Amino acid sequence: MLDEDALRRAVDGIPHVRATVRWDDVTTSTNETAMRLASEGAPAWTLVAAAHQTRGRGRQGRSWVDRPGRALLCSVVLRPELPPDRLGLVSLASGAAIAGAGSTLSRGAVRCKWPNDLLAEGAKVGGVLAEAEVEGAVVRHVVVGFGVNLEVPEGVEGAGALVGVDPERLLAGSLASLWRLLAAPDEIPERWRAVADTLGRRVEATTVGGDAVRGVAADVDATGALVVETDGGPRRVAFGDVRHLVHDDG
Question: Which of these ranges, 6-10, 52-56, 58-62, 231-235, has the smallest mean pLDDT?
Answer without folding.
Answer: 58-62
